[in-house]
Amino acid sequence: MKEKTFVMLKPDAVQRKLIGRIIQRFEDKGFDILNMKMMKISRELAEKHYEEHKGKDYYEKLVNFMSSGRVVAMVIEGENAISVVRKMIGKTNPLEADVGTIRGDFAYSTPDNVIHASDSKESAEREINLFFGQ
Ligand code: CDP
Ligand code: MG
Question: Active site at which residues (predicted)?
Answer without folding.
Answer: 116
